[in-house]
Specification:
Elements: E1 2-10, H1 14-24, E2 27-34, E3 39-44, H2 51-67, E4 70-78, H3 80-88
Antiparallel strand pairs: 1-4, 2-3, 2-4
Length: 100
């Protein structure tokens, strides 16, 4: 299970934002759509995908960014991130069990 986040961004900032998202970790898939909602490209991010593996993807994103003025990035993340956020929020009151 996971959840999706969507970001509206200018084409010139696209590659930088993708790199930031990947650096945050916990990402399964990234999709890039134009301002009309048409999906331009989509690629999975696997655990351990680093530098050399992502270099061709970054090159393709750079080419797409040159053509787009506005775009939408949709990020599919693991649910683990959401669980961590819940831990940082207000905690549930502790449950007390009395055994006689």
């Amino acid at each position: 299970m996971g959840f999706k986040e969507t970001f509206q961004i200018n084409g010139e900032n696209l590659l930088q934002k993708i790199k930031e998202i990947i650096a945050e970790g916990n990402v399964n898939k990234i999709s890039i759509s134009d301002k009309h909602g048409k999906e331009i490209m989509s690629f999975p991010i696997t655990v351990g995908a680093i530098g050399l593996i992502l270099a061709p993807v970054f090159a393709a994103i750079g080419a797409v960014a040159a053509l787009l003025t506005e775009c939408t990035i949709t990020v599919e993340r693991n649910s683990e991130k959401k669980e961590e956020d819940k831990k940082d929020g207000p905690a549930d009151p502790p449950t007390t069990i009395t055994v006689n």
